[in-house]
Amino acid sequence: MSKNLSAVASIEFDSMVKHAYATKGLLRPAVTVRNNVVGDTYKFRNMGKGLANQKSTSDLVTPMDVSFDFAIATLQNWNAPEYTDLFDQAEVNFDEKQELADTIAGALGRRCDQLVIDAMDAASPTTIVHGSAALSMAKVVEAQVSLRAQGVPNSNLFAAINAKGLGGLLDDSKATSSDFQTVKALVTGDINSLAGFTFVVLDDRSEGGLTVASNTVDSYFFHRDAVGLAIGIDMKTSVDYVPERTSFLCNGMLKAGSVVRDASGLIKVEYKDNV
Asked: 164 lies in which domain range?
C-alpha cells in the first residue's frame, strides 16, 4: 500500500469536500456569519435604537448615546473522520471519492445547522404555543405580526421547520384558504418563500434537528440579524495514512459557535408533530 498521497490528490479531494460543503449547511445563509474568527469566543455587537433630537442653528450637536451590548458565541472544534482505502487504488473511482466527500461535508454541514438550532433553543424568545394543532397559516401570520410589532424589518426573514410542518401548512390551506397553490409549490420545492419568510425545511437527523418533545415541534421564525454564527476553521480537510489501520484517515474539520444576538427578532412557533 502506498503511504504517500500526492499533493495534487490531496488538493483535489479538499476541493471536492469544500464544494460539497457549500450546499450542505441549510441554516448558514439564514444567519449573520463572521468568518476567520481567532480564539475560542466571538462577541457580536448589538446596537440599540437611537432617538433623533431637534437642533437649532446655534446649538451644539447632541449625541444619541446609543447603548449597545454583546452576545458571545463560544467556538468548538468538530471533526468528521472516516477511514478509507480509496486512495490505495491504482485508479480511484471519481464517484466513490465524491461520495466520501459528500459524507464528510454533510456531517459538518448538519453540525453547523445544529449549532444554530441549539443557540435558538437556549434563548428565551416569544413563543406561539401549539394549541394541540399542526402548523397553520394563522401561526405563520402571527409570527410575522409579532416580529413587525418588535420593529423587525420585513426582509431577510426565515422560518426553520420540519417536514411535518409543511404537511400541516398544506392541509390547512387546502381546507380553508386560497393559499393552497402557493403552499403546494413550497412543498414541491418550486418556491421557498411564503408570507415574507424564506422557509428552511430540516430533515430528521442524528445531530438532533429541531426539538420534538411530547409530539410538539419547536420551530423558529426569525430575522437574519437575530442569530450569529462565528467560524474559526471553515471546512478544512486532511488525508493521512494510519499504519495501524492500513488505511487512510480522511478528516473534515470545523471550528464554530452560534448565539442569539437579539431575541426580539426570534419567534418560537410550536406545533403538533402527530396531527
From this structure: 7-46+70-272
